[in-house]
Amino acid sequence: MTAKATATRRAYLTNWTVSVPIVALIALLLTWGRELSGPVVVVVSLCLAGAVLAAVHHAEVVAARVGEPFGSLVLAVAVTFIEVALIVTLMISGTPEKTASLARDTVFSAVMITCNGIVGLCLLVGALRRRIAVFNPEGTGGALATVATLATLSLVFPAFTTSEPGPEFSPAQLTFAAVASLGLYGLFVAVQTVRHRDYFLPITSAGEVVDSEEHADPPSHTAALVSLGLLTAALIAVVGNAKSVSPTIESGVAAAGFPPTVVGVIIALLVLLPETLAAVRAALRDRVQTSLNLAYGSAMASIGLTIPAIAIASIWLDGPLTLGLPATQLVLLGLTVVVGILTVVPGRATPLQGGVHLSLLAAFVFLAVRP
Protein backbone atom coordinates (compact mmCIF):
# COMPACT_ATOMS: atom_id res chain seq x y z
CA MET A 1 0.00 0.00 0.00
CA THR A 2 1.45 3.39 -0.99
CA ALA A 3 2.09 6.19 1.51
CA LYS A 4 -0.67 8.27 -0.13
CA ALA A 5 -3.21 5.45 0.15
CA THR A 6 -2.23 4.85 3.77
CA ALA A 7 -2.66 8.54 4.60
CA THR A 8 -6.04 8.62 2.86
CA ARG A 9 -7.21 5.57 4.78
CA ARG A 10 -5.98 7.01 8.09
CA ALA A 11 -7.77 10.31 7.38
CA TYR A 12 -10.98 8.44 6.56
CA LEU A 13 -10.83 6.38 9.76
CA THR A 14 -10.33 9.51 11.87
CA ASN A 15 -13.29 11.28 10.22
CA TRP A 16 -15.92 12.01 12.88
CA THR A 17 -18.71 10.45 10.79
CA VAL A 18 -16.80 7.16 10.93
CA SER A 19 -15.39 7.29 14.45
CA VAL A 20 -18.51 8.54 16.26
CA PRO A 21 -20.76 5.53 15.43
CA ILE A 22 -17.97 3.19 16.52
CA VAL A 23 -17.40 5.09 19.77
CA ALA A 24 -21.17 5.17 20.38
CA LEU A 25 -21.37 1.38 19.93
CA ILE A 26 -18.48 0.90 22.36
CA ALA A 27 -20.26 3.14 24.89
CA LEU A 28 -23.41 1.04 24.42
CA LEU A 29 -21.55 -2.23 25.07
CA LEU A 30 -19.84 -0.84 28.18
CA THR A 31 -23.00 0.62 29.76
CA TRP A 32 -25.75 -1.79 28.71
CA GLY A 33 -27.81 -2.98 31.66
CA ARG A 34 -25.89 -0.93 34.24
CA GLU A 35 -26.90 1.91 36.50
CA LEU A 36 -25.09 5.00 35.22
CA SER A 37 -23.49 7.75 37.29
CA GLY A 38 -23.82 11.43 36.37
CA PRO A 39 -20.53 11.78 34.41
CA VAL A 40 -21.19 8.56 32.51
CA VAL A 41 -24.68 9.79 31.57
CA VAL A 42 -23.12 12.96 30.13
CA VAL A 43 -20.65 10.91 28.04
CA VAL A 44 -23.37 8.55 26.78
CA SER A 45 -25.63 11.51 25.95
CA LEU A 46 -22.85 13.09 23.88
CA CYS A 47 -22.37 9.76 22.09
CA LEU A 48 -26.12 9.63 21.47
CA ALA A 49 -26.19 13.14 19.97
CA GLY A 50 -23.13 12.37 17.83
CA ALA A 51 -24.67 9.12 16.62
CA VAL A 52 -27.81 11.00 15.52
CA LEU A 53 -25.73 13.47 13.50
CA ALA A 54 -23.62 10.69 12.00
CA ALA A 55 -26.70 8.65 11.11
CA VAL A 56 -28.23 11.56 9.20
CA HIS A 57 -24.93 12.18 7.38
CA HIS A 58 -24.64 8.57 6.22
CA ALA A 59 -28.31 8.52 5.26
CA GLU A 60 -27.61 11.54 3.03
CA VAL A 61 -24.69 9.68 1.41
CA VAL A 62 -26.87 6.66 0.68
CA ALA A 63 -29.65 8.94 -0.58
CA ALA A 64 -27.22 10.68 -2.95
CA ARG A 65 -26.21 7.31 -4.37
CA VAL A 66 -29.77 6.03 -4.74
CA GLY A 67 -31.08 9.24 -6.34
CA GLU A 68 -34.57 10.72 -6.30
CA PRO A 69 -37.31 10.04 -5.43
CA PHE A 70 -36.00 7.14 -3.36
CA GLY A 71 -33.17 9.23 -1.91
CA SER A 72 -35.62 11.46 -0.05
CA LEU A 73 -37.33 8.38 1.33
CA VAL A 74 -34.03 6.94 2.61
CA LEU A 75 -33.24 10.12 4.53
CA ALA A 76 -36.79 10.51 5.85
CA VAL A 77 -36.99 6.87 6.95
CA ALA A 78 -33.64 7.13 8.75
CA VAL A 79 -34.64 10.29 10.63
CA THR A 80 -38.07 8.85 11.45
CA PHE A 81 -36.48 5.63 12.69
CA ILE A 82 -34.44 7.69 15.14
CA GLU A 83 -37.52 9.57 16.32
CA VAL A 84 -39.66 6.44 16.68
CA ALA A 85 -36.82 4.58 18.41
CA LEU A 86 -36.46 7.33 21.00
CA ILE A 87 -40.23 7.48 21.56
CA VAL A 88 -40.72 3.72 21.87
CA THR A 89 -37.64 3.35 24.09
CA LEU A 90 -38.92 5.95 26.53
CA MET A 91 -42.44 4.50 26.42
CA ILE A 92 -41.16 1.04 27.28
CA SER A 93 -38.90 2.23 30.09
CA GLY A 94 -41.48 4.58 31.67
CA THR A 95 -44.88 4.10 33.22
CA PRO A 96 -47.92 4.13 30.89
CA GLU A 97 -49.42 7.10 32.73
CA LYS A 98 -46.35 9.27 32.11
CA THR A 99 -45.62 8.16 28.54
CA ALA A 100 -49.15 7.98 27.09
CA SER A 101 -48.77 11.38 25.41
CA LEU A 102 -45.05 11.10 24.52
CA ALA A 103 -45.67 10.40 20.82
CA ARG A 104 -48.09 13.35 20.58
CA ASP A 105 -45.72 15.68 22.41
CA THR A 106 -42.76 14.72 20.21
CA VAL A 107 -44.64 15.03 16.92
CA PHE A 108 -46.22 18.34 17.91
CA SER A 109 -42.84 19.63 19.06
CA ALA A 110 -41.38 18.67 15.68
CA VAL A 111 -44.16 20.58 13.90
CA MET A 112 -43.60 23.70 16.02
CA ILE A 113 -39.81 23.55 15.68
CA THR A 114 -39.89 23.08 11.91
CA CYS A 115 -42.80 25.36 10.97
CA ASN A 116 -41.79 28.18 13.32
CA GLY A 117 -38.19 27.63 14.40
CA ILE A 118 -36.51 26.48 11.18
CA VAL A 119 -38.81 28.49 8.89
CA GLY A 120 -38.49 31.63 11.00
CA LEU A 121 -34.70 31.38 11.35
CA CYS A 122 -34.18 30.76 7.64
CA LEU A 123 -36.50 33.58 6.58
CA LEU A 124 -34.69 35.91 8.97
CA VAL A 125 -31.26 34.87 7.65
CA GLY A 126 -32.39 35.09 4.03
CA ALA A 127 -34.08 38.47 4.46
CA LEU A 128 -31.11 39.98 6.30
CA ARG A 129 -28.81 38.73 3.55
CA ARG A 130 -30.85 39.96 0.56
CA ARG A 131 -33.30 42.39 2.23
CA ILE A 132 -36.14 40.13 1.03
CA ALA A 133 -36.27 36.33 1.19
CA VAL A 134 -37.72 34.96 -2.06
CA PHE A 135 -39.29 31.52 -2.54
CA ASN A 136 -41.85 29.73 -4.70
CA PRO A 137 -45.34 30.05 -3.13
CA GLU A 138 -46.77 27.22 -5.25
CA GLY A 139 -44.51 24.49 -3.90
CA THR A 140 -44.22 25.94 -0.40
CA GLY A 141 -47.98 26.44 -0.19
CA GLY A 142 -48.58 22.81 -1.12
CA ALA A 143 -46.09 21.71 1.53
CA LEU A 144 -47.76 23.83 4.21
CA ALA A 145 -51.20 22.51 3.22
CA THR A 146 -49.95 18.94 3.55
CA VAL A 147 -48.43 19.61 6.97
CA ALA A 148 -51.66 21.26 8.18
CA THR A 149 -53.76 18.33 6.94
CA LEU A 150 -51.49 15.72 8.51
CA ALA A 151 -51.42 17.58 11.82
CA THR A 152 -55.21 17.89 11.85
CA LEU A 153 -55.79 14.22 11.03
CA SER A 154 -53.36 12.94 13.66
CA LEU A 155 -53.31 15.54 16.44
CA VAL A 156 -56.54 17.57 16.28
CA PHE A 157 -59.27 15.05 15.50
CA PRO A 158 -58.51 12.79 18.54
CA ALA A 159 -59.44 15.69 20.81
CA PHE A 160 -62.96 15.73 19.34
CA THR A 161 -63.80 12.13 18.44
CA THR A 162 -66.20 10.24 20.73
CA SER A 163 -65.49 6.55 20.03
CA GLU A 164 -62.95 6.42 22.87
CA PRO A 165 -62.97 8.35 26.17
CA GLY A 166 -60.39 11.09 26.30
CA PRO A 167 -58.23 12.44 23.47
CA GLU A 168 -57.61 9.01 21.95
CA PHE A 169 -58.38 7.27 18.67
CA SER A 170 -60.21 3.98 18.47
CA PRO A 171 -58.21 1.22 16.70
CA ALA A 172 -60.15 1.82 13.46
CA GLN A 173 -59.62 5.58 13.65
CA LEU A 174 -55.90 5.15 14.37
CA THR A 175 -55.58 2.82 11.38
CA PHE A 176 -57.30 5.35 9.12
CA ALA A 177 -55.09 8.20 10.35
CA ALA A 178 -51.95 6.10 9.85
CA VAL A 179 -52.88 5.01 6.32
CA ALA A 180 -54.00 8.52 5.31
CA SER A 181 -50.80 10.05 6.72
CA LEU A 182 -48.59 7.57 4.89
CA GLY A 183 -50.50 8.07 1.65
CA LEU A 184 -50.32 11.88 1.83
CA TYR A 185 -46.61 11.79 2.55
CA GLY A 186 -45.96 9.43 -0.37
CA LEU A 187 -48.02 11.64 -2.70
CA PHE A 188 -46.08 14.73 -1.65
CA VAL A 189 -42.72 13.03 -2.25
CA ALA A 190 -43.83 12.04 -5.75
CA VAL A 191 -45.00 15.57 -6.54
CA GLN A 192 -41.87 17.21 -5.11
CA THR A 193 -39.28 14.98 -6.71
CA VAL A 194 -40.88 13.88 -10.00
CA ARG A 195 -44.02 15.47 -11.38
CA HIS A 196 -43.72 19.10 -10.22
CA ARG A 197 -40.08 19.33 -9.21
CA ASP A 198 -39.76 22.89 -10.58
CA TYR A 199 -42.23 24.14 -7.92
CA PHE A 200 -39.63 23.35 -5.26
CA LEU A 201 -36.54 24.84 -6.89
CA PRO A 202 -35.03 28.17 -5.74
CA ILE A 203 -36.17 31.26 -7.65
CA THR A 204 -34.70 34.70 -8.24
CA SER A 205 -36.23 38.00 -7.13
CA ALA A 206 -37.70 38.25 -10.66
CA GLY A 207 -39.52 34.95 -10.19
CA GLU A 208 -37.26 32.88 -12.46
CA VAL A 209 -36.55 29.29 -11.47
CA VAL A 210 -32.91 28.58 -10.64
CA ASP A 211 -31.88 24.99 -11.26
CA SER A 212 -28.28 25.52 -10.32
CA GLU A 213 -27.92 23.85 -6.94
CA GLU A 214 -24.46 22.49 -6.23
CA HIS A 215 -24.72 18.92 -7.42
CA ALA A 216 -21.63 16.94 -6.44
CA ASP A 217 -20.87 13.68 -8.16
CA PRO A 218 -22.78 10.81 -6.51
CA PRO A 219 -20.68 8.72 -4.11
CA SER A 220 -19.18 5.48 -5.36
CA HIS A 221 -20.84 2.13 -4.80
CA THR A 222 -18.24 1.23 -2.17
CA ALA A 223 -18.69 4.52 -0.32
CA ALA A 224 -22.46 4.03 -0.29
CA LEU A 225 -22.11 0.50 1.13
CA VAL A 226 -19.72 1.73 3.83
CA SER A 227 -22.17 4.51 4.73
CA LEU A 228 -25.01 1.97 4.83
CA GLY A 229 -23.05 -0.11 7.34
CA LEU A 230 -22.16 2.92 9.44
CA LEU A 231 -25.79 4.09 9.25
CA THR A 232 -26.90 0.75 10.68
CA ALA A 233 -24.29 0.99 13.44
CA ALA A 234 -25.33 4.55 14.29
CA LEU A 235 -29.01 3.62 14.48
CA ILE A 236 -28.27 0.69 16.79
CA ALA A 237 -26.20 3.03 18.98
CA VAL A 238 -29.02 5.60 19.05
CA VAL A 239 -31.60 3.07 20.21
CA GLY A 240 -29.34 1.43 22.80
CA ASN A 241 -27.88 4.60 24.27
CA ALA A 242 -31.33 6.21 24.38
CA LYS A 243 -32.52 3.32 26.52
CA SER A 244 -29.51 3.75 28.81
CA VAL A 245 -30.03 7.47 29.46
CA SER A 246 -33.85 7.56 29.33
CA PRO A 247 -34.33 7.11 33.11
CA THR A 248 -31.96 10.01 33.75
CA ILE A 249 -33.75 12.24 31.23
CA GLU A 250 -37.14 11.56 32.80
CA SER A 251 -35.90 11.99 36.37
CA GLY A 252 -34.03 15.18 35.41
CA VAL A 253 -37.15 16.68 33.86
CA ALA A 254 -39.18 15.76 36.94
CA ALA A 255 -36.53 17.10 39.32
CA ALA A 256 -36.52 20.43 37.48
CA GLY A 257 -40.26 20.68 38.03
CA PHE A 258 -41.04 20.55 34.31
CA PRO A 259 -44.09 18.71 32.91
CA PRO A 260 -43.55 15.43 31.00
CA THR A 261 -44.19 17.23 27.69
CA VAL A 262 -40.65 18.66 27.93
CA VAL A 263 -39.30 15.16 27.17
CA GLY A 264 -41.00 15.31 23.76
CA VAL A 265 -39.45 18.72 23.12
CA ILE A 266 -35.98 17.34 23.93
CA ILE A 267 -36.44 14.41 21.54
CA ALA A 268 -37.63 16.67 18.71
CA LEU A 269 -34.74 19.10 19.22
CA LEU A 270 -32.24 16.26 19.07
CA VAL A 271 -33.74 14.64 15.98
CA LEU A 272 -34.17 17.93 14.07
CA LEU A 273 -30.71 19.35 14.81
CA PRO A 274 -29.15 18.13 11.52
CA GLU A 275 -32.04 19.48 9.42
CA THR A 276 -31.81 22.83 11.20
CA LEU A 277 -28.11 23.16 10.42
CA ALA A 278 -28.65 22.16 6.78
CA ALA A 279 -31.54 24.61 6.37
CA VAL A 280 -29.56 27.53 7.80
CA ARG A 281 -26.61 26.74 5.53
CA ALA A 282 -28.95 26.80 2.54
CA ALA A 283 -30.39 30.16 3.62
CA LEU A 284 -26.87 31.58 3.92
CA ARG A 285 -26.30 30.51 0.28
CA ASP A 286 -29.46 32.42 -0.72
CA ARG A 287 -31.39 29.16 -1.20
CA VAL A 288 -34.40 29.97 0.99
CA GLN A 289 -36.60 27.63 -1.02
CA THR A 290 -34.29 24.75 -0.17
CA SER A 291 -34.52 25.74 3.50
CA LEU A 292 -38.31 25.72 3.40
CA ASN A 293 -38.29 22.35 1.62
CA LEU A 294 -36.20 20.93 4.46
CA ALA A 295 -38.38 22.50 7.15
CA TYR A 296 -41.78 21.46 5.85
CA GLY A 297 -40.42 18.13 4.59
CA SER A 298 -39.16 17.33 8.09
CA ALA A 299 -42.55 18.23 9.57
CA MET A 300 -44.31 15.98 7.07
CA ALA A 301 -41.96 13.06 7.72
CA SER A 302 -42.36 13.50 11.47
CA ILE A 303 -46.13 13.11 11.18
CA GLY A 304 -46.59 11.04 8.02
CA LEU A 305 -44.09 8.35 8.98
CA THR A 306 -44.00 8.52 12.79
CA ILE A 307 -47.75 8.18 13.35
CA PRO A 308 -48.01 4.96 11.24
CA ALA A 309 -44.94 3.54 13.02
CA ILE A 310 -46.36 4.36 16.45
CA ALA A 311 -49.71 2.90 15.39
CA ILE A 312 -47.97 -0.40 14.63
CA ALA A 313 -45.93 -0.25 17.84
CA SER A 314 -49.07 0.38 19.89
CA ILE A 315 -50.15 -3.20 19.15
CA TRP A 316 -47.67 -4.50 21.73
CA LEU A 317 -47.16 -1.39 23.85
CA ASP A 318 -49.09 -1.31 27.12
CA GLY A 319 -51.24 1.60 28.14
CA PRO A 320 -53.22 4.26 26.25
CA LEU A 321 -51.96 6.30 23.30
CA THR A 322 -52.98 9.92 23.75
CA LEU A 323 -52.81 11.87 20.48
CA GLY A 324 -55.30 14.72 20.87
CA LEU A 325 -53.82 18.14 21.63
CA PRO A 326 -54.99 20.17 24.64
CA ALA A 327 -56.57 23.59 24.14
CA THR A 328 -53.38 25.68 24.40
CA GLN A 329 -51.55 23.59 21.82
CA LEU A 330 -54.57 23.64 19.52
CA VAL A 331 -54.44 27.43 19.56
CA LEU A 332 -50.70 27.41 18.85
CA LEU A 333 -51.17 25.01 15.94
CA GLY A 334 -54.01 27.06 14.47
CA LEU A 335 -52.03 30.29 14.80
CA THR A 336 -48.99 28.62 13.20
CA VAL A 337 -51.05 27.56 10.18
CA VAL A 338 -52.63 31.01 9.77
CA VAL A 339 -49.29 32.82 10.08
CA GLY A 340 -47.71 30.28 7.73
CA ILE A 341 -50.36 30.95 5.08
CA LEU A 342 -49.84 34.71 5.34
CA THR A 343 -46.09 34.18 5.04
CA VAL A 344 -46.22 31.78 2.08
CA VAL A 345 -48.84 33.43 -0.15
CA PRO A 346 -46.76 36.48 -1.23
CA GLY A 347 -43.73 34.34 -2.11
CA ARG A 348 -41.37 36.76 -0.36
CA ALA A 349 -40.70 37.70 3.23
CA THR A 350 -38.99 40.40 5.27
CA PRO A 351 -37.29 39.97 8.66
CA LEU A 352 -40.71 40.66 10.23
CA GLN A 353 -42.12 37.33 9.07
CA GLY A 354 -39.10 35.52 10.40
CA GLY A 355 -39.45 37.26 13.75
CA VAL A 356 -43.16 36.40 13.98
CA HIS A 357 -42.46 32.70 13.45
CA LEU A 358 -39.63 32.72 15.99
CA SER A 359 -41.90 34.41 18.54
CA LEU A 360 -44.39 31.56 18.09
CA LEU A 361 -41.59 29.06 18.73
CA ALA A 362 -40.61 30.97 21.88
CA ALA A 363 -44.23 30.90 23.05
CA PHE A 364 -44.39 27.15 22.43
CA VAL A 365 -41.20 26.46 24.41
CA PHE A 366 -42.26 28.73 27.28
CA LEU A 367 -45.72 27.16 27.53
CA ALA A 368 -44.18 23.67 27.38
CA VAL A 369 -42.07 24.50 30.41
CA ARG A 370 -44.73 26.57 32.19
CA PRO A 371 -48.13 25.40 30.91
Automatic annotation (TrEMBL):
Tell me which UniProt keywords the record has, alphabetically. Answer: Membrane, Transmembrane, Transmembrane helix
**Main subcellular localization, coarse class?**
membrane
Q: Which residues cross the membrane?
A: 12-32, 38-58, 70-94, 106-128, 140-160, 172-191, 222-240, 252-273, 294-317, 323-345, 352-369
Name this protein carries in UniProt: Ionic transporter y4hA
This protein's species is: Asanoa siamensis
Q: Where in the cell is it found?
A: Membrane
Q: How does it sit in the membrane?
A: Multi-pass membrane protein
Q: Which InterPro entries does its entry note?
A: Alkaline_pH_Ca-Antiporter, NaCa_Exmemb
What Pfam families does its record include?
A: Na_Ca_ex (PF01699)
- Ranges for domain Sodium/calcium exchanger membrane region come to 41-193, 227-368
